[in-house]
Amino acid sequence: MTTGKKDMLKAYRKKRRFPETPEPKGGKGKSKKRPVFVIQQHDASSLHYDLRLDIGGVLVSWAVPKGPSTNPKDRRLAMQTENHPLEYANFEGVIPRGHYGAGPVLVWDTGTYRNLTEKDGEQIPIAHGLENGHIKFWLEGQKLKGGYALTRTGNSEKWLLVKMRDDEADARRNPVKTEPESVLSGRTLSEIAEEG
Ligand code: MN
Fold first, then answer.
1. Domain hosting residue 153, numbered range
2. Quick one: DSSP state of residue 88?
């Protein structure tokens, strides 16, 4: 990618007023050898789950209204949103009223991921897959494990998130419903809303 880190977070910073929002402004992002992912539960104008993957030193982000599924038969809408800084993976708290995304944020799952993206049977960098509109990755989270695919539909910001068929697929699980607590603090979203 030719764009600098600063430009990659331009939209993120433009939407926010620091330090009135407790969200991180973000510094120079550098991808780890094992890149991180995070899924944050966020009750803004509507409840959704933000899936974020470290790609090229920023958290490339999608808002998933229904959250991820462990059932390969489910196709979950994922709207791509602005890149977030790497520091955002640890952000849990309340975005104050009147600010962009106002409402509580909970770290629902986090861990590392491995790139599985292929083209014509060959593995390609996930950044290339992002440009092509199709990526695959293996999550090593506390709640979610296994392969997931994200595929862009047409030329829009609309993607579909699907669990791949592997040993971690499980149609009987529904962790979004049964495991609502934060993996960082054990709190629920309403507890974060009350406590800040
Ligand atoms: Mn959000």
1. 29-195
2. G
Domain count, the chain: 1
Question: 15 CA distance to ligand 1 centroid (A)?
Answer: 13
For residue 141, report the distance from its CA to the centre of ligand 1, in Å. Answer: 19
Distance 46 CA to ligand 1 centre (A): 9
Token readout for 25 is: 């402004």
Judge whether 116 lies within some domain: yes
CA 119 to ligand 1 centroid distance, Å = 30
Q: Ligand 1 center to residue 122 CA distance, Å?
A: 33
Grouped pLDDT means (10 residues each) for the chain, 196 residues:
64 92 85 90 96 96 98 98 96 96 98 96 96 97 98 92 98 96 97 91
From the list 56, 148, 40, the residue with the least C-alpha distance to 104 is 40
For the beta carbon of residue 20, count every other beta carbon within 10 angstroms.
11
Query: How many angstroms is it from 139 CA to the middle of ligand 1?
Result: 20
For residue 55, the surrounding DSSP H or E stretch is strand 47-55
Ligand 1: distance of its center to the CA of 49 in Å? 7
Residue with tokens 């014509």: 120
Would 44 be classed as within a structural domain?
A: yes
Domain-embedded: residue 120: yes
Give, in order, the Cα–Cα distances in Å from 185 to each of 37, 48, 76, 108, 139: 17, 19, 27, 10, 21
Task: Identify whether 133 is part of a domain.
Answer: yes
